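Hi L.,

You mentioned the student needs an example of a multi-chain input paired with its predicted structure. This one should do, with 616 residues in total across all chains.
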Amino acid sequence: MPRIAYLGPPGTFAEQASRALTEETTPELVPRESIRSALDAVRGGEAFAAGVPVENSVEGAVSATLDGLASGEPLVAVAETVLPVRFDVLVRRGSSARDVTSVASHPHALAQVRRWVAERLPGAGTVPTSSTAAAAEEVETGSADAAVVAPVAAQHHPELVPLARGVADVDDAATRFLLIRGPGPLPEPTGADRTSIAVVAHDEVGTLGEVLSELALRGINLSRIESRPTVDGLGTYRFFLDLDGHVADARVGDALAGLHRRCSEVRFLGSFPKAGREPVNARPSASEQAFRESAAWLERVRSGRLDS
Amino acid sequence: MPRIAYLGPPGTFAEQASRALTEETTPELVPRESIRSALDAVRGGEAFAAGVPVENSVEGAVSATLDGLASGEPLVAVAETVLPVRFDVLVRRGSSARDVTSVASHPHALAQVRRWVAERLPGAGTVPTSSTAAAAEEVETGSADAAVVAPVAAQHHPELVPLARGVADVDDAATRFLLIRGPGPLPEPTGADRTSIAVVAHDEVGTLGEVLSELALRGINLSRIESRPTVDGLGTYRFFLDLDGHVADARVGDALAGLHRRCSEVRFLGSFPKAGREPVNARPSASEQAFRESAAWLERVRSGRLDS
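Structure written out for the whole complex:
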């Protein structure tokens, strides 16, 4: 039973994501007090892997995860999942909407259901808690009447029942989570993969443009780019890039080798199937066949055979 | 004694260049009536190599050579030499400047010494001939008094003597010649090499820019680019590129493989020491070491070792 570390407490979206990321196994989920601590549990061998959030459609990149992956012993992402940010509202068994006079949750969660609460629980006050999971505790102990929680919370509170499910003022909010592991065989390419890297470019005019050209010239789609100052001080940046394809793909490996030559630091952060399984189609000039053929052609030319 | 084909007749700059290109051997020089015919002599096995002009500093590219290399059985350049376009003026033994009333040469040559003739042989008429070599014949037979010739012509006409040497109205005019051979081992890299290729780019917006970016991103200097319509009609062009470096250099091979993937046709036209022996310095991100290290790094990453 592999141990999977995640940002606790239990009953949050982080637990739910970690379950989704490991659904083919029956993991022992180990809550940690921070993202850094969850990653360090993997580095220290106390956990086989960690489930951590990496970006949210409303709030953007999760800096603690980016920084935690960029420094320290190398780790890699081996899976991702996208969790819609939709809440369940739990109440005590026998309660109905008209019994609810107070609604508890983490302030971020309360902010995302404000309109729903105003319409469906008019007049109810709000009780801020340290996590969505803690809100369920408040309802259980009677300190609040309703809790806005991650769907997984119900499993920890069988005495509570849902008043509503899939609640969110904004329909499409979602958080992407990664399953992070230590060194070891990478996931096999599936034809619908994403590769994450972090690079520090030499501080020269045009270097970032050249980095992006290395990808563009090989027909590699860049789906995300974030910059974070390095510890060397403001002015030097580390760029986090997500690109379509697997490092085992010829064009991706070729591009990454190019970045390795060009950048003062390239850290590979993983190749794994995209959550949405959207196929990645290489254009003809960047296909596996094109790379095979060009390598064979070059070998012929270098040997003087000239059979172009 | 290797047979070297060249554009005749004997006694021209083409013969002189062919001697310079093969100075380490004692070739048998075989004049041909055209550049195409000299190249075909190599293709047909009648000659070991051909010495042909490829560009002139005044008149530009020599289309017959470019087209002759781009189609037909593959050939490669294995050496180059740059010949200054400076003429000798030959007269009959015993003649002096004041005896000269007519000056013979190919019209191109006469054009390049017009000022010198006006100043040093005032009043002399001009006699156009089919080649500079033919002009020497005219002087020998008495049909003209002076011949404007390639320096090598004197060797064919020991009865003629130089009235002047190194004559040219424009000081720096020069012609570059290539020694062309059939398939076989390429010249070893010297660190001061040039590589010639011909590419046909897909007719898409930006393709030529991408071709040039493949070179620029690897720090490869492009010293020459010429375009010639392909036989497929106007609108489709073949680009002749000269770039610094040898196909055996990692960055050059890598770039050429990239072009092979991207272009509908890439023909390798040779890697050979530059006539001027100017060293080609790869920038750090394109050095042999950088390529070795990036390949080793990629192998580690793909194997999941992550020791970045």
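You could point out the following to them. Chain A has a mean pLDDT of 93. Chain A is about 30% helix and 35% strand.

Best wishes,
N.
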